[in-house]
Design brief:
Rossmann fold, elongated, 5 strands, 5-stranded mixed β-sheet
Length: 216
């Protein structure tokens, strides 16, 4: 069997809670030594893992994989690629369609092996369950809103003032134990607009939680 040409993607963000580059490099290097990979490390300073926008190093790596200049994309943790398991399922689909492998050390995913491919399928299954759960929560949350609010959101309206129902949803998610980033991601996934109609960020969530609750 030929030596696998592996691109080890290391993403460095400004979040102090994120895993540092030294740890990522050490984990990928150790894994390469165990499996005899031909490892090429590529480091990128990018604050967000939400999309490829602003991540030219990763975009170039994907181009090399698609063109057959590398065989595998490896990361130490899922959040180096994306903070969403649902998004990760799409990464797996792209890898299979384009005939390159993906390794995610913290999830135990390695699509270059039979066991790893099976693990990847389990990951995709749970990702689909998560998508359905978010959809069910969205329907339930919308059902609790006044008819006018529901109609405004369906029509793409952007309220200038944050709705009491929206603030209540943020506090509900916090009570369930979600992190600020987790709440922001969930609110975005549920299609709930912010006061200005923009994207949800952890800082936005923090501002809501730190102020007095608005009466519904």
């Amino acid at each position: 069997m030929s030596t696998l040409r592996v691109i080890g993607y290391v993403r460095v963000s400004t979040d102090k809670q994120d895993i540092g580059p030294e740890v990522q490099i050490a984990e990928l290097t150790a894994e390469a030594a165990r499996h005899g990979w031909d490892l090429e490390l590529r480091r990128e300073d990018a604050a967000s893992a939400k999309s490829l926008k602003g991540r030219p190093i990763l975009a170039a790596a994907l181009a090399d994989l698609k063109a057959g200049r590398a065989d595998v994309l490896a990361v130490s943790k899922l959040d180096r690629l994306s903070r969403s398991v649902a998004d990760f399922s799409r990464w797996l689909e792209d890898a299979e369609a384009q005939r390159w492998g993906i390794v995610c050390l913290d999830l135990g995913v390695d699509t270059t092996s039979i066991t790893g491919r099976a693990m990847a399928q389990v990951t995709v299954t749970f990702a689909e369950m998560e998508r359905r759960r978010i959809r069910e929560r969205t329907i339930a949350a919308m059902a609790k809103m006044p008819a006018a609010s529901r109609e405004r959101m369906r029509n793409g309206g952007r309220p200038r003032v944050l709705a009491a129902e929206t603030e209540a949803r943020v506090r509900e998610l916090r009570a369930e134990g979600l992190t600020l980033a987790g709440i922001a991601e969930t609110m975005t996934a549920e299609g709930v607009p912010t006061a200005k109609g923009g994207k949800w960020w952890p800082a936005t969530v923090r501002q809501i939680l730190e102020r007095e609750p608005v009466a519904a």
